[in-house]
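HUMAN: Spend a minute on the protein record below and explain its fold to me.
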Amino acid sequence: MPPPPVHPASRKHGRKHRRSIDPRHARVAGVFGLGAVSGVLIASSLLTNGHGAPTVAPPAALGQPDQPEPGSTAPLPEIPGTGVLRPGDSGHGVYELQVRLLQIPQIYDRGAINGRYDTKVRQAVARFQQRYGIHGDEVGVYGDNTRQALMLRTK
C-alpha cells in the first residue's frame, strides 16, 4: 500500500500544516457550548427538592424489586430526594414520589405528576401508610419509613 500523500506546504517547510479556524465554526461551537451550560443549569435547578438541597438519582442499572424478599437486609440504592417531604414542598423528589405512588393501585389514581406536594399527594401518602401499616412517620408525610416501604414496592 503506498504511503499517504503529503501536503506540499508541509514538505516544503518540514513542519506540520497548521489548520486555521473558520469564524463560522467558532460561532457554532460557542452556541453549542452555551447550550450545554444552560442545560446543566436547568437540570441543576430541576433536581432540587424545594429546600435548596440537590437530589441524587440512582444509577439506571439498579432495579427495584416489586416486593421485598422476606428476611432481606440488602441496603437500598441511593434514593432520589432523600429527606422528609411534606405538603408545600416541590421539586424532583416530589415528582419521583408522585411517579411511585401511581404504581400502587388505588393510592394516587389519576393524580398529577407536577412536582408539587399538595393535598392529593398528602392523602395518597396517608392511604399508602395505612394500607401497608407504616409507622414512625407523621401521617401524610413522606419520611424515611414511608420512603423505604414505597421504594421496595415500586420501580
Observations:
- Helices lie at 8-13, 23-46, 92-102, 119-131, 144-153.
- The longest helix spans residues 23-46.
- Residues 47 and 53 are 9 Å apart (CA to CA).
